[in-house]
Design brief:
By secondary structure, the chain is mainly α. It has a single domain, classed as Arc Repressor Mutant, subunit A (Orthogonal Bundle), CATH 1.10.10.10. The chain contains 5 helices and 2 strands; from the N terminus they run ααααββα. Strands 1-2 form a two-stranded antiparallel ribbon.
Length: 156
């Protein structure tokens, strides 16, 4: 890898971390822990046809099943979500947003979208730098010699 690739990768990582740190601050200002905001967003933003089961949500927020239950417990206690058992399979637990959860999610999400629309170009630029960078071919003078066995030329 070239120095430019390392710099581009480091810049992308910096921009992503900056975006996430700002999202955490906005969530906290709205009275949510960052994981609670992620959970609300995961519930509301599931692909069409997916049900908000604990397993699906754990997958979407990249947590283990048991680590997903705690933020859902807290959200439920605060009146942001409710749980219900599946009709066909009572082992399944479905999670859905309540109006209060929808309102707080919308507040944070609107702020994040606005932030992306005004400052997202830096993140996009960092991605483009990494994706568009082409590895420079080796200079002919720097090409490696073919390996030899015990110092002898293998060609004959």
């Amino acid at each position: 890898m070239s120095g430019n690739e390392y710099r581009a990768l480091a810049e992308l990582r910096y921009r992503i971390r900056q975006f996430l740190r700002e999202a955490d601050a906005v969530a906290r200002a709205a009275g949510l822990e960052p994981q609670q905001y992620l959970m609300l967003l995961a519930i509301r933003g599931l692909p069409r046809g997916d049900e908000a089961t604990i397993r699906t949500l754990a997958h979407r927020v990249v947590l283990k099943h048991h680590s997903t239950v705690e933020p859902i417990d807290r959200l439920e206690r605060r009146g942001y979500v409710c749980r219900r058992r599946g009709r066909d399979d009572r082992r399944l637990v479905m999670v859905s947003l309540l109006p209060r959860g929808q309102r707080v999610l919308e507040t944070v999400a609107k702020h994040r979208i606005s932030e992306l629309r005004s400052n997202g170009r830096q993140l996009v630029h960092a991605i483009k730098q990494l994706l568009e960078h082409r590895r420079q071919p080796r200079d002919d003078n720097r090409q490696r010699k073919s390996p030899t066995r015990r110092g002898r030329d293998r060609s004959g």
